[in-house]
Design brief:
Blueprint lengths: L15 E2 L4 H7 L5 H9 L17 H5 L12 H8 L5 E2 L35 E8 L10 E2 L3 E8 L3 H20 L8 E6 L2 E6 L2 E8 L2 E8 L4 H15 L2
Antiparallel strand pairs: 1-4, 2-3, 3-5, 5-9, 6-7, 7-8, 8-9
């Protein structure tokens, strides 16, 4: 079931040309600027967008591995489907990461921190876990066009609450420095709805970060409306698990 608020049919700027290499994507979309940036940052933890989706259930090997503290904070695909009212969301194994992915090396330095990347969570974390669920069409021919509906989440656990807060403060400084560049490709909005939460918003995209105790959490929603409500609900669910 596709949610009635999905922007897949109406937000044309989310279209991207799916090819085998990232360089080909950038070449195909040369000149789209901001649109490509939004897609890339939102999909940094959904790197399997052109591959078959994997089952939401863990493999036997995964199931036999004891859960870490970070594992226990990730919201299941079934729960995210319910929150987003979007049954077509599919889990992708390539989004299941234990280290933050590298940011876009072509982005200005501070702008690499937007979304989910190695600069988002700074250094010093002791556990990391991310997961990504998307509604990208599985059957896409090379050079075809696809729109993205996705929900991503990531958590990093630090040695103590001070280190987690410092990571959020560093992220805020990076995003503000990015905004100060006035680069037309990075004109998203950044604000703090409360002292523990940092928010990035743009058309059809909401990305939230929150610190609680020794944990820095991240949730991004792209192409599914209401994006901010969905992101907040998933973030609240993660936050409720932090003790």
């Amino acid at each position: 079931m596709r949610p009635t608020g999905s922007t897949r049919s109406s937000v044309t700027y989310l279209a991207l040309r799916l090819t085998r290499h990232a360089a080909d994507i950038r070449a195909a979309l040369a000149g789209t600027g901001k649109s490509l940036f939004i897609i890339c940052t939102a999909l940094l933890v959904i790197t399997a967008c052109s591959h078959k989706g994997t089952s939401a259930k863990p493999s036997t090997a995964t199931a036999a591995t004891p859960q870490s503290g970070a594992d226990a904070l990730i919201i299941s695909i079934e729960e995210v489907r319910r929150i987003a009212n979007y049954e077509e969301l599919t889990a992708h194994s390539h989004a299941d990461l234990r280290h933050p992915p590298p940011g876009d090396l072509n982005a200005p330095g501070p702008c690499r921190a937007a979304g989910t990347s190695d600069l988002t969570f700074a250094s010093g974390w002791i556990e990391f876990r991310s997961a990504g669920y998307s509604g990208v069409t599985d059957e896409i021919r090379p050079g075809g066009m696809a729109l993205v509906d996705s929900v991503s989440q990531a958590v990093a656990i630090y040695p103590d609450a001070h280190a987690a807060r410092a990571a959020l403060d560093q992220l805020e400084a990076s995003l503000n420095a990015c905004m100060a560049l006035h680069d037309p490709k990075y004109t998203f909005n950044v604000d703090k709805p409360d002292p523990a939460t940092l928010r990035i918003t743009d058309q059809g995209w909401s990305h939230l970060y929150r610190v609680k105790n020794a944990v820095l959490m991240s949730v991004g929603v792209l192409g599914i409306e209401p994006a901010e409500r969905i992101a907040n609900t998933v973030l609240d669910a993660i936050c409720d698990r932090v003790t």
